[in-house]
Amino acid sequence: MTVSPLNASATVVLFLATFATSTRLTAQEQPEPGAGIASRYAHDRGIGEDPAVIFNEDFEQASLERIGLRWDTVRNVEVMSLSSDIPSGSGGKQSLLMSQLAEKGTGGDLYRQLGDGYDKLYTRMYVKFADDCEPVHHFGTCVGGNNPATRWPSVRAGQPTKGDESFWLGVEPFGSRWQWDYYTYWCDMRGSPPRGQTWGNSFIHDDTLKVRRGQWTCIEVMVRINDVGDTNGELALWIDGRQVSHLGKGFPRGKWVFDKFLPGQEGDGVRWNQTTGDREYFKTSAGGDPFEGFRFRTAEPLQVNFLWLYLYITKGTRGHANRVWFDDVVLATEYIGPLQTE
Q1: Cα atoms in the 13 Å half-sphere on the side-chain side of 298
Q2: Residue 37 resides in a domain
Q3: Which of 37, 47, 116, 80 shows the shortest CA–CA distance to 326?
Q4: DSSP strand pairing (138-146 vs 304-312)
Q5: What is the domain-level CATH number for residue 59?
Q6: Domain housing 58
Q7: Could you tell me the pTM of the whole model?
Q8: Is a pLDDT exceeding 50 seen at residue 25?
């Protein structure tokens, strides 16, 4: 793999300036507590050798320069540093700290291409937001696919992706609510008033899923892309080893309100009709309508083929550092689970 140097990618800078049938994980087949790849590797030691693991990053290299050689694009390395703050149970001694400072821009990025790509991918990482971190605009763990594959982020905000070219999804702490949810772009995404513009669609809306600033959190997301011609793509999310979301063709039940799917809700729904350029109201069934699933792609070559870790804050208080730590990142074709101590 050809690796880019530790400098800003023009493509990333331009984007951020405008950033405003196979085995399935079914609702009845969830991993048992303590299961997963990490259960076989205490403190994650040796986990990178597991045949199901595609990539792991523990930030244990001696310098940022050496860490950067494992990534295709590194943006704003000057806001990154190595920290001795690590998650409980980690086998390492350091983590990566990104600090957004208003004087130095919007944050930083690490981006890696994942070879030819995968139909199904699990991504686990540990993340910690400082107690005094201001609300973030966007944040990743972000995974997705580009066809053809790229060595830098090439996502576009405010419009659906093309089904033969790209899709992407992040797991984010939404603004001042500090509430975990998805932020998803694909070709069938929903629009919102006043012009039907499409921002990242979300699917959880659970006000109990608050970010615990000042504490390490284990985030794991699963994405399975659809068979071409079907809507059987899936998303699932675990927080500290507890599954908090799973969406696929026919589940869960709920309703759409523009670009937000609300699980468990029923009654009047509303969508933006791109043909008429106006709102369209509809009734849902008792208990809500089954979720339609995801058509992430319309062409076979589009696979899950990138990982993007980043911090993006459009505004921040001058003189204040908004700090976010990353550690113990693992990508695999099977469920990973949290760090294990024995």
Answers
A1: 8
A2: no
A3: 80
A4: antiparallel
A5: 2.60.120.200
A6: 53-184+212-247+296-332
A7: 0.91
A8: no
